[in-house]
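Need residues for this backbone.
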């Protein structure tokens, strides 16, 4: 089910809302997209992150948009156009077609589906969701360190009172 602009043009980025993350594909035309899928041929493309996280491998496939989307919501989202210039459409499609059926390395934070499609569209890998995840991990780490320091300070003050 589409939300927002549901008439993609070749070279457009397609954002698909999954339960815990956004999956990204690039529209090729005639109802087809290119996207990162699990290496396991039997695994549905919906499970790309779960399967690929553990194998650190993924496969690039050309599939019908409706098959990739399933029952999830999707929209055209060329959000990086505000800060980057898209390559010419013919170049985007040419670059995309070279990847079809290739196995690639996969890393949720450094080389995910959003990185892949932005590399095709702009010639530069970008992923806001990876930046947000990294920022969250850094923040959690900082909280953990601060908590540890605070506990040690409290324990130290408590021991000084006992002496």
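Answer:
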């Amino acid at each position: 089910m589409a939300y927002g602009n549901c008439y993609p043009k070749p070279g457009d980025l397609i954002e698909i809302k999954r339960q815990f993350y956004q999956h990204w594909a690039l529209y090729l035309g005639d109802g087809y997209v290119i996207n990162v899928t699990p290496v396991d041929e039997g695994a549905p493309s919906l499970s790309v992150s779960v399967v690929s996280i553990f194998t650190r491998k993924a496969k690039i496939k050309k599939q019908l948009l409706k098959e990739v989307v399933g029952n999830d919501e999707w929209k055209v989202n060329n959000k990086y156009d505000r800060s980057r210039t898209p390559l010419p459409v013919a170049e985007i499609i040419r670059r995309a077609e070279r990847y079809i059926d290739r196995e690639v390395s996969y890393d949720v934070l450094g080389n995910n589906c959003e990185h892949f499609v932005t590399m095709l569209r702009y010639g530069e890998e970008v992923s806001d969701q990876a930046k947000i995840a990294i920022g969250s991990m850094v923040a959690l780490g900082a909280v953990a360190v601060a908590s540890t320091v605070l506990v040690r300070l409290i324990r130290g003050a408590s021991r000084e009172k006992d002496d």
